[in-house]
Amino acid sequence: MAEGGIEHSVSDTEGVPRNSSLHSDHSGNYVEKTSVEVCYIMTHLGYGEEIRRRRILKHREKDSIRNARRVTNRPYMITAGSKAEGLSFFYESDHDFLFILNVVLCVEVGVDLHTIPDDIEVYRMNTRVYPGHCRMLLERQGSTRLDVIQKALYDDGKGHTMLSSGLFVDEFAKTKSLGVLRELAGPPVPRTINGRINMDYVSAIPCQCPSIMQRWAERPRNWPTPDVVRKVVSLGSFVTPVGFKESEYKFLEWRICFNTGETELVNNLSTTQAKLYVLLKMIVKDRLNPKKKEVTSYVLKNIILWQAESNSPTLFQENKLFHWLHDAMRTLKTAIAFTQLPYYMIPDRNLMAACGLQDEQGVNG
């Protein structure tokens, strides 16, 4: 496994995490039987494989219809988060969308600008900031510039024009065509449609960072398959207007993201792994109940992805659901205790850094 990943304690005989409460002589069979029953119940509650795949397909179809109506060179939207993963019902949670500005491109140092169409505005990544983030320096102006970009430009006084994430979010929040603005609590711009459907729009700029993708693709792993790895690489990356919380210049920083690739990864989890992810989110929401979203569903997703990569897919059987749930909870407990959890795509980035976690809040062992 890659340096900076998560190590798991695996039994030599069973291939599952060991815990005395789960593996006593008489309780092991009961735990496995209960695991199968919970999987069965979750299928009938709408978290089975068939309905999950149907939800994924329907959201993709909606995206295609929506984007077919857009004007050429205008931003397009794709469904993200649990809706794109088929793991939540229509009214169960907010609808997350990526609002992609396709007339702008952020590129890594070393990318040849001559391979990029002349009408695309290009920004060069400066990654001398907190891992997983960058600053965007104007490299080449495009033939078309959106107002939101124009109003977010920042002169650093040293001859460089930068794209400010802070100014960008302020301008993007003024967009009136996305519904009624709710309270702005972070980079996603929250809107309410028809008074009942809550939607979060995250603006994103396509990004070419081949060296980062290569490091992820080449590390040793048990999962996913090489074909899925290639698919994730082909989906590319984005930058979103989120600076590192503790940075003095966070208003100039952007976060490097792999939304579509991560959706592809979650969509390739097995049925048992998908149910495990849903259960973990339920437990954290209802029992841990983070006060200020110190532990987000995104943290839980990364725990599940690390777990999947670190173990053979054959180990994730229905009768082992509770074993792997306990393993994931143990990883979460460690992440909270040490405020340390590496980002699955860029392990140098700590997802628990500057999370605002309160010392008194913990997880019951």
List keywords for this structure.
11 helices, alpha+beta, 2 domains, globular, Mab-21_HhH/H2TH-like, two-stranded antiparallel ribbon, Mab-21-like HhH/H2TH-like domain-containing protein, Beta Polymerase, domain 2, MAB21L/cGLR, Poly(a)-polymerase, middle domain, 365 residues, 17% strand, six-stranded mixed barrel
What is the strand and helix layout of this fold?
Blueprint: H1 28-47, H2 49-68, E1 76-80, H3 81-84, E2 95-100, E3 104-107, E4 121-126, E5 133-140, H4 147-150, E6 153-155, E7 161-163, H5 165-172, E8 180-181, E9 189-193, E10 197-208, H6 210-218, H7 226-235, E11 237-240, E12 253-257, H8 259-267, H9 271-288, H10 297-310, H11 321-338
Parallel strand pairs: 2-10, 3-4, 3-10
Antiparallel strand pairs: 1-2, 4-5, 5-12, 6-7, 8-9, 9-10, 10-11, 11-12
Helix pairs in contact: 7-8, 9-10, 9-11, 10-11
Rg of Cα set: 21 Å
What is the H/E string? HHEHEEEEHEEHEEEHHEEHHHH
* CATH fold-level topology of the largest domain: Beta Polymerase, domain 2
Number of helices: 11
End-to-end separation: 26 Å
Kindly state the mean pLDDT as a whole number?
Answer: 87
Low-confidence stretches: 8-18, 179-186, 358-365
Strand fraction: 15-25%
- Structural class call reads alpha+beta
Describe this structure in words.
Residues 276-355 form the Mab-21-like HhH/H2TH-like domain. Residues 1-28 are annotated as: Disordered. InterPro entries: Mab-21_HhH/H2TH-like, MAB21L/cGLR. This is Mab-21-like HhH/H2TH-like domain-containing protein. With 365 residues, this protein is an alpha+beta fold. It contains eleven helices and twelve strands. It has a six-stranded mixed beta barrel with strand order 3-4-5-12-11-10. A two-stranded antiparallel sheet has the order 6-7. β4 and β5 form a beta hairpin.
